[in-house]
């Protein structure tokens, strides 16, 4: 009888309070199986090397896996340009219009969908429309003509697009994509390398408004081949009287075709609110790095260069498309008002021609550095799928989600949560992200100094969670975001080369933490846990003792203790320590024997929360502690039990049955997709009135930023079971974004390229067991997999390179090779496992370095006699015997 009732419920449109007469715990247990029944071959693949993300078409083109690919190939904070899987460029959100403006992408909701935020009955990007129906060049073609191809002697143009070639293969090694073209009727094979210059730690060279299209042509025939390589670019202006011919120029080493562009975006009405119309003026330039000539393709102006290749000969030809739109339209507050700012790149470059000139003059350096990073990142023993998935989310920096606002001092970083949705570099979203801090730490320091502790912070220490919005203006404080800001501040110190950042910002960091301490004190018991109204990232205020938020608070106290110690602020250090110890003990009252729960406040019995549910962020403070090397925050066994409970009760191998039962929530996982559900109530405790709350929708969703947080934590715990489960959750996300189904380069949560997804990098760091303290000159590695033969990339404060280690019964040899910049070191932390090595030898490029071997609880420390600097091209070798 019970089974029959459940079967009936699977068919209902909405999970309502009436349906909750059936025990919700039973429903969760029946739709989230404890036995995950995972394919053994799939599990084995979690740790196999594999190959880079690929897709392609051939022959009949029946299996086209290229169409959904949209890899950003624009500079950081310069707008969005997508490269399709077949090498075409599309989207072109470079003039502050956004998907919400010119690319609405409205799609019908799934049958029975009862989620929120629909427009005229259709789903918008906010509700996951681009997950269900990804952007493609066919569905969203550019409003102007642009492309590249071969012009043969008969005048026919063979475009670099799937329709014109028998075989097209895409290989993604973001930030560089490779597209290979071949055709039995063509004497040429073509390889495209597409990218925008991208050099970690070097923001200036990585934030240029340009896309590079480098074509290598190879003559596979026995005869000399002659043809023309052409590129064309129409004026993208959408106003009258645009100059359609453009300005053509031949320089000593490059040729250009420039357009002066004028764009107009009408006012946008949302409900009763209406924005002002937006006018944008700028320029775009098509350039060829060599001598070309003016041409036209279907009456669109372009550049042509003659090619002549002997049998077997190969040659590379490079085009650039650069752009320049000084005005930037952003939203600084709630309501209809949009304001005009200036793009920081407009302070560096006068127009698109100046951008092209700069890239042409520095192309060898920009190209070689970019390719060196790609080589470094992929030169690893780690699974390629893991390398791809954990770093690719950083491409949100290359989209219209992120901006650098002109301020005369390098720019002020400002971002949305997702493209054109939820403004203000929101603290309770962005604190999950780890990738930007590790690869471009200057942007995180910029955000702390110019926004969080600059324009935003209030006198009482509050950092309003939407940056420029003050308390009382719809912004105010998000407690989890406030904790995250303190934690990020300690991270920014650790990723710096010295203590300048901490010294300059300590007073403001301390005020931010003091607000939380006062929040604790005002509850009356001053117990290291937070009570009262706690607004958080699920857009609601929870009450009582909230396991997740108190976990973050405990981590923030530990970080505060460490920062106070380094600043010689003894009184504050002691206060943080005392409160941390109270919280570390007190939070155990929220442990129910299997996982942590929220102790709800009876005075706010109708407030939304998770109560007795199994919540994805329940031990998030320890996730942060792992990122910062803060050690164990509280009970190890209980934390591991809580993570195992997440796997048991929240991981769904196929969300189909779950979503057919629990209809509410947006679709970021589809039939056949696996994922970690935000919250479940397998043991009861889900209140009927929660189901009627619009924020209950969130609990039924798979949001990758949260999933990565839990996965990274599982891997960092280091037990074989949890490591495998953390990898499985990460791989489930990777599989959801397979090119056969959707865009692998656009992780979605409340719009495209959502910032929280950058927590993926935490999984990579956990797999490497990476530990770093730049000012102290300490680096460490403790791989969670493949420890006996391990190689992976790493970044430090001022350099990046490759770390490798090999362990045998006789010795452990570890090497640090610097491929860019330099790295200062005084100590190296390693874990040789159970091997009782007693001696150490260290050399830098073959020259002995004095060092001492120190034992610690989980491995060894190699203490160098003095601080050393490893320069680009040098290698440090450590041998333990």
UniProtKB/TrEMBL annotation:
Domain Glycosyl-hydrolase family 116 N-terminal: from-to ranges: 70-240
Q: Cross-referenced InterPro entries, in alphabetical order?
A: 6-hairpin_glycosidase_sf, 6hp_glycosidase-like_sf, GH116_catalytic, GH116_N, Non-lysos_glucosylceramidase
Q: Which residues form the Glycosyl-hydrolase family 116 catalytic region domain?
A: 480-762
One molecular function GO term is: hydrolase activity
- The organism's superkingdom is given as Bacteria
Stored SUPFAM superfamilies: Six-hairpin glycosidases (SSF48208)
The residue range of the signal peptide is 1-21
Q: Which UniProt keywords apply?
A: Hydrolase, Signal
Question: What Pfam families does its record include?
Answer: DUF608, Glyco_hydr_116N
Supply the name of the protein.
GH116 family glycosyl hydrolase
Identify the species of origin: Coraliomargarita algicola
Its lineage opens with: Bacteria, Pseudomonadati, Verrucomicrobiota, Opitutia, Puniceicoccales
């Amino acid at each position: 009888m019970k089974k029959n009732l459940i079967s009936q419920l699977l068919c209902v449109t909405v999970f309502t309070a009436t349906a909750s007469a059936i025990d919700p715990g039973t429903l969760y247990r029946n739709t989230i199986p404890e036995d995950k029944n995972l394919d053994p071959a799939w599990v084995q693949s979690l740790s196999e090397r594999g190959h880079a993300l690929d897709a392609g078409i051939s022959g009949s083109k029946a299996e086209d896996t290229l169409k959904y690919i949209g890899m950003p190939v624009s500079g950081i904070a310069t707008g969005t340009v997508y490269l399709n899987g077949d090498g075409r460029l599309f989207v072109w959100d470079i003039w502050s219009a956004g998907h919400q403006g010119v690319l609405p992408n409205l799609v019908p909701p799934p049958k029975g969908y009862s989620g929120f935020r629909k427009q005229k009955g259709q789903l918008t990007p906010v509700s996951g429309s681009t997950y269900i129906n990804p952007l493609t060049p066919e569905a969203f073609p550019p409003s102007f003509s642009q492309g590249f191809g071969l012009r043969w002697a008969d005048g026919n143009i063979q475009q670099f697009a799937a329709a014109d070639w028998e075989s097209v293969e895409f290989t993604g090694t973001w930030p560089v994509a490779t597209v290979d073209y071949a055709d039995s009727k063509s004497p040429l094979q073509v390889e495209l390398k597409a990218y925008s210059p991208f050099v970690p730690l070097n923001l200036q060279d990585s934030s240029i408004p340009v896309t590079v299209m480098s074509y290598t042509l190879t003559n596979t025939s026995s005869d000399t081949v002659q043809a023309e390589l052409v590129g064309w670019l129409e004026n993208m202006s959408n106003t009258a009287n645009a100059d359609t011919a453009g300005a053509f120029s031949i320089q000593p080493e490059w040729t250009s075709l420039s357009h002066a562009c004028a764009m107009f975006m009408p006012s946008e009405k949302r409900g009763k609110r209406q924005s002002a119309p937006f006018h944008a003026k700028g320029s775009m330039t098509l350039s060829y790095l060599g001598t070309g000539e003016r041409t036209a393709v279907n009456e669109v102006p372009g550049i042509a260069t003659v090619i002549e290749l002997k049998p077997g000969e190969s040659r590379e030809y490079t085009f650039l498309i650069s752009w320049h739109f000084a005005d930037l339209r952003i939203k600084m507050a709630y309501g209809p008002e949009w304001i005009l700012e200036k793009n920081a790149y407009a302070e560096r470059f006068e127009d698109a021609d100046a951008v092209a000139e700069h890239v042409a003059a520095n192309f060898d350096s920009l190209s070689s550095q970019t390719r060196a990073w790609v080589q470094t990142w992929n030169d690893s023993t780690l699974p390629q799928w893991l390398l791809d998935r954990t770093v690719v989310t950083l491409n949100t920096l290359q989209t219209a989600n992120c901006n650098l606002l002109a301020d005369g001092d390098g720019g002020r970083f400002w971002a949305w949560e997702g493209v054109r949705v939820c403004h203000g570099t929101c603290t309770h979203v962005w604190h999950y992200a780890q990738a930007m801090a590790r690869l471009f730490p200057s942007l995180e320091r910029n955000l702390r100094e110019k926004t969080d502790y600059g324009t935003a912070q209030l006198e009482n220490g509050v950092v309003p969670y939407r940056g420029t919005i003050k308390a009382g203006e719809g912004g105010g404080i998000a407690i989890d975001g406030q904790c995250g800001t303190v934690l990020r501040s300690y991270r920014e110190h650790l990723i710096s080369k010295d203590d300048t950042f901490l010294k300059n910002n300590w007073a403001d960091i301390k005020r931010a933490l003091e607000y939380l301490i006062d929040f604790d004190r005002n509850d009356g018991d001053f117990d290291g846990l937070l009570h009262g109204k706690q607004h958080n990232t699920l857009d609601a205020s929870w009450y009582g003792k909230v396991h997740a938020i108190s976990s973050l608070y405990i981590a923030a106290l530990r970080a505060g203790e460490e920062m106070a110690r380094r600043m010689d602020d003894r009184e504050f250090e002691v206060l943080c320590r005392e409160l941390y110890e109270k919280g570390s003990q007190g939070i155990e009252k929220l442990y129910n024997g299997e996982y942590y729960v929220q102790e709800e406040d009876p005075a706010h019995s109708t407030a939304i929360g998770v109560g007795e549910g199994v919540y994805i962020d329940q031990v998030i403070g320890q996730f942060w502690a792992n990122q910062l090397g803060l050690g164990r925050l509280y009970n190890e066994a209980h934390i591991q039990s809580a993570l195992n409970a997440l796997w048991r009760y929240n991981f769904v191998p196929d969300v189909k049955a779950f979503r057919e039962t629990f209809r509410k929530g947006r679709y970021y996982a589809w039939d056949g997709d696996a994922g970690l559900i935000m919250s479940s109530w397998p043991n009861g405790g889900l209140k009927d009135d929660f189901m009627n709350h619009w924020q209950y929708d969130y609990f039924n969703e798979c949001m990758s930023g949260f999933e990565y947080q839990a996965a990274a934590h599982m891997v960092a715990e280091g037990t074989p079971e949890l490591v495998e489960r953390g990898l499985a959750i990460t791989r489930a996300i990777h599989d959801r974004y397979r090119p056969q189904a959707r865009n692998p380069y656009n992780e979605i949560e409340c719009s495209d390229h959502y910032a929280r997804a950058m927590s993926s990098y935490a999984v990579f760091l956990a797999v490497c067991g990476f530990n770093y303290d730049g000012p102290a000159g300490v680096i460490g590695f403790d791989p969670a997999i493949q420890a006996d033969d391990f190689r992976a990339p790493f970044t430090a404060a001022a350099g990046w390179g490759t770390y490798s280690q090999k362990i045998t019964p006789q010795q452990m040899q570890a090497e640090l090779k610097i491929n860019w910049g330099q790295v200062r070191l005084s100590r190296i932390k390693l874990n040789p496992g159970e091997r009782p090595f007693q001696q150490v030898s260290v050399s830098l490029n073959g020259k002995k370095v004095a060092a001492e071997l120190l034992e610690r609880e989980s491995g060894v420390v190699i203490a160098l006699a003095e601080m050393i600097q490893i320069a680009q091209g040098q290698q440090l070798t450590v041998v333990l015997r």
